[in-house]
Amino acid sequence: MNKFEQTLKTTILKQDLLRRGSRVLLGVSGGSDSVALLSALAELRTDLGFQLIVGHVNHHWHGQAGQHQKFVQDLCKDLNVGCDVVHLRAAPAKGSKEEWAREQRLDKLVALAKTMKCHCLALAHHRDDLAQTVLMRIIRGAGLLGLQGMLPKRELLGFLVIRPLLDLSRKSILEYLTDKKIIYKVDPTNRDRTFLRNRIRNELIPLLEQDYNAGIGQALVNLSRNVLIDYDFLSSAAEEQKRLIVRKGKQSYQVKLSDLKALHSALQHLVIRSMVELAKGDLRQISLSHMDEVEDLIFSRPLGSVVDLPGKVVIKKEKNFLRVKGFFASKRPRLSSQRRKT
Q1: Over the stretch 292-309, which tens digit does the pLDDT of each residue have?
Q2: CATH for 3-134+148-195, among 3.40.50.620, 3.30.565.10, 3.40.50.740, 3.40.50.2300?
């Protein structure tokens, strides 16, 4: 067992990411990060006593997509690891193709993990990815929740997702692949400037390292870890306040306005986020600006006003309550703007 694999093993045990007898689905694109994680987990599976399965998402975005799929399948065959392939064939005409692909990948892999009766889904994000994510969210105006970046273990879409490489850098990953003479594929879309993450990775972070702070990557990781501690404390404080939330039907929840207004604004946001997550199923695309709009609804707008949030969620200010309701796509009425009076 080399240094890279030993570090990975230590992280898995320290963070309690995989337990003996676990069945884990690993997302593998064929790129350096996921191939390194596949190779290392294949080495550790007997020692740690878990079963490994691979899921590959073929986006059909470029002419090499079929070659990348075959590469992953052949690699899994060599390592005696089962491999399942899922496909993405249509991208949205509007909106962020990058964000759509990220969400669709996660959806597909979680669904596959559930079908395969796996205990968790493993993704190959590393320390540099964490720094990039934090910087991207700063640019987008994220609050504490977003500035946590990626967590080593988190429930997403009702399923456990683990990221065992967050303590390891991209440099250490490439060194591991070189030392073990492991080949991997390079996705040509990694240089596509239309993707925000690519511009941050290939342009902004190198600029910050050169002209402002050579250790910007570690500084962003440290920010994420400090925010994680603070947010964990706030979340613990908010647990008692979540008892104020009352379910009022399918995908519908309410809280007394008087109770909500009595809370500190930080706890107000956490209670509202909890209601949105209950009504929507997740917190995708819910930003700090949305929380500010809901706060304005609570304190400044007349009764009957509503705020429409991404993911088909409507928040309405009633006489004594704030109501949060989610709608199925087939049943939800079309809403024309984020501010309405009913």
Answers
A1: 899 999 999 999 999 999
A2: 3.40.50.620
